[in-house]
Write a structure and sequence with these properties.
mainly alpha; 175 residues
């Protein structure tokens, strides 16, 4: 069983992941309304991924017999000045989540909670990938802000097949 501080922090992170889910849905809807189907689909997928992260955390807490508390979240930003602003917000969000995951790892280490430290390793790797891909997308969107077809082409070309990561933690409710 993890120390109380870690379990409390992981419950808070579940809320952060669900807030990220909601933010990505709002971004996807923004791009859908602009008739940018590739960007919309990309962010709908990102939303599902964030929800999946939250459910992995829920499952971990259930597996170690810790209390699970699903926190409420604030409403996401849903209006944007242009096609660049949502991606810039998404990159800031990914950087913030990276800091949050690193904070969870610090807490696990401080409490000598080796199982929780091991659980977090996948999330550390995942955040490196998320920040890198969102940084690339921001560069493309900034460079092509006046040519959204180039943005759509990039996303269609680059956001293909990630598939299911067999090393990912099990998510609550997953088959």
């Amino acid at each position: 069983m993890p120390a109380g501080r870690f379990a409390a922090a992981l419950n808070a992170q579940i809320g952060n992941e669900l807030a990220a889910h909601n933010q990505y849905v709002a971004i996807a809807v923004h791009y859908d309304a602009l008739t940018l189907p590739q960007m919309a689909a990309y962010f709908y997928r990102q939303a599902l991924e964030e929800r999946g992260h939250a459910m992995m955390m829920v499952q971990y807490l259930l597996d170690i017999d810790a209390e699970v508390t699903i926190p409420g979240v604030e409403a996401p930003v849903s209006t944007f000045a242009d096609v660049v602003a949502p991606v810039a917000l998404a990159l800031d969000q990914e950087r913030r989540v990276t800091e949050q995951i690193n904070g969870l790892l610090r807490t696990a280490r401080e409490e000598s909670d080796y199982a929780s430290e091991q659980f977090l390793q996948w999330f550390i790797k995942e955040q490196v990938e998320e920040v890198a891909s969102m940084s690339d997308l921001l560069a493309v969107v900034e460079r092509n802000r006046d040519d959204v077809e180039n943005i759509e082409d990039y996303v269609a070309r680059e956001s293909g097949g990630g598939g299911i990561d067999p090393t990912a933690p099990r998510a609550a409710g997953a088959p």
